[in-house]
Amino acid sequence: MKSFFKNVLANIVAIVILCAVFFFFFIMMLVFSSMSSDKSVTVKKNSVLTINLKTMIIDSPTEEQKGLFDISNQNKSILLYEALEAINKAKTDDNIKGISIEADDLYAGLTQVDDLRNAIEDFKKSGKFVYAYGNTASQMSYYLGSVADKYFLNPSGMIELKGLATEVAFFKDFADKYGIGIEVIRHGKFKSAVEPFLRNDISPENKEQLSTLLNDLWKNTSTRIAASRKIDTAQFKTIVDSLYGMIPEQSLKYKLADQLIQKTEYDRLIKSKLDLKDEDKLNKISLGKYINSYSGDDAKSGDKVAVLYASGSINNGDEYNEIYSEKYIRYIKDLQEDDKVKAVVFRINSPGGSANASDEILFELQQLKKKKPLIVSFGDYAASGGYYIAMAADKIYSEPNTLTGSIGVFGVIPYFKDLANKNGIRSDIVATNANSQYYSSLNGVSPYGVSMITKSVEGTYKRFVHFVTQNRKQTFEQIDTVGGGRVWSGTRAKQIGLVDDLGTLNDAVKFAAQKAGLKSYHVASYPKQMSAFEQIFKDFNEDDISARVIKNKIGKANYEILQQITSEKLNSEIKMEMPYQIKTN
């Protein structure tokens, strides 16, 4: 007995010590995080603003991916608006003599790179230089780098210039093989989010919309690259088709690069541009540090234009990441009641999600619009539910390469009757009413259940189109013609009247201020970024930790496929969601 109590006491002491160690560890992390973020930054003379591998451009604070052990600022996430403001400020900053683009892989979306390119093109009007350097440059990073006065490539490097393609994974045979039944109800022949569960290839309708969409996006992108590099359009197509960028000498021959040099030689070249000697230090300053150098300068009192960011899929609930209805309802109500907020820009970067959650958010935005100007700006995606929640806007701005529209609705209901039967599992039902068990994971959906869900999908689609007709001032028939789940580029969306104008987030902010009659104002971003303390405890979420482990083991692409076939949201509600993402790298 004495031994027993001795062991119990020892375990208690060990637990107390362990808790104390963890507590000390957390406190130290918070201290180091605070110290690193509070460091003052001074911009030295003859500095070069650098866009490098350590910069991640995000649309919303909720996209911040800093983890439990990321206490440094080495991979700082920067809001797109802040990045654009920094480049604009550098244009008139006497200490900044030029920009150096040194990103082989760019962590930013296509429309974000469009905006960065526009800002750099405007920067060049100052007469300051813009150079770019690549080792093994992805297509996205080359798209940005091609805006430079000169592009330099490593002698053993490459440029992955190949055009756009999409690959759709299909699960019908997988489901059949393992006895998984999938009941699908959708409205719109172009609503292809459900195709992977119904077919083994891309339908003609989906192939048509994908071809049109990809060609629109590539036309916008390739035209700008060719113009910047002064390459004939026909010749540029040959260069891309032939993958000439893969060979350094071919890149030089066909004007993709101006010179093949090592990175050290590139730095010397910049020194020479600045009239510095070899022994002089080259002062490079990253976007993140440059923003920190002046972020506390401007007074934050007075009238505000609020930018409310909405990035990710749309869901019911109250979580921080992505777009959760309860959380966004609170944000919208707070902005409505804040007397200092004179106008709101709603920045949408979403492929859609829950129809119910989208409807809740739209209603609150409609209430906000009654009190203040509401301008919408689209990022990479504004499709399905992402387009639906824009229908309260006074004006909608889209980027040329925004994936827009996808006005359609669907429901997917998986069941496992054949799988269960093959393994000797049977079920029997006792119920009080005719349709108490209209759906069962073992037996699927009853015929009457299918009928009612179909009515629900059709009703949701009509409600969707109704709000679009009100905002776009078109008839049901006109919207239905360009709806049916079809996704359009921002350029075509403007042509068919789904958006008001092509423009950037900056354009939306300026118009919002103008509509509110503001001459002096500052821009405030919502939601606020999580504190280091909040981030630490968020990382202890069991599901989040499990997801990260699996993603690291099988890779991001495979993890996204796994999500498609295992998501609990598949059978939980009617969806307004786009079926895919376009990746340009």
UniProtKB/TrEMBL annotation:
<dbReference type="GO" id="GO:0008236">
    <property type="term" value="F:serine-type peptidase activity"/>
</dbReference>
<dbReference type="InterPro" id="IPR029045">
    <property type="entry name" value="ClpP/crotonase-like_dom_sf"/>
</dbReference>
<dbReference type="InterPro" id="IPR004635">
    <property type="entry name" value="Pept_S49_SppA"/>
</dbReference>
<comment type="similarity">
    <text>Belongs to the peptidase S49 family.</text>
</comment>
<feature type="transmembrane region" description="Helical">
    <location>
        <begin position="12"/>
        <end position="32"/>
    </location>
</feature>
<dbReference type="InterPro" id="IPR002142">
    <property type="entry name" value="Peptidase_S49"/>
</dbReference>
<feature type="domain" description="Peptidase S49">
    <location>
        <begin position="367"/>
        <end position="518"/>
    </location>
</feature>
<dbReference type="GO" id="GO:0006465">
    <property type="term" value="P:signal peptide processing"/>
</dbReference>
<keyword id="KW-0645">Protease</keyword>
<dbReference type="GO" id="GO:0016020">
    <property type="term" value="C:membrane"/>
</dbReference>
<keyword id="KW-0472">Membrane</keyword>
<protein>
    <submittedName>
        <fullName>Signal peptide peptidase SppA, 67K type</fullName>
    </submittedName>
</protein>
<dbReference type="Pfam" id="PF01343">
    <property type="entry name" value="Peptidase_S49"/>
</dbReference>
<keyword id="KW-0720">Serine protease</keyword>
<keyword id="KW-0378">Hydrolase</keyword>
<feature type="active site" description="Nucleophile">
    <location>
        <position position="384"/>
    </location>
</feature>
<dbReference type="InterPro" id="IPR047217">
    <property type="entry name" value="S49_SppA_67K_type_N"/>
</dbReference>
<feature type="domain" description="Peptidase S49">
    <location>
        <begin position="123"/>
        <end position="265"/>
    </location>
</feature>
<keyword id="KW-1133">Transmembrane helix</keyword>
<dbReference type="InterPro" id="IPR047272">
    <property type="entry name" value="S49_SppA_C"/>
</dbReference>
<dbReference type="InterPro" id="IPR004634">
    <property type="entry name" value="Pept_S49_pIV"/>
</dbReference>
<feature type="active site" description="Proton donor/acceptor">
    <location>
        <position position="191"/>
    </location>
</feature>
<keyword id="KW-0812">Transmembrane</keyword>
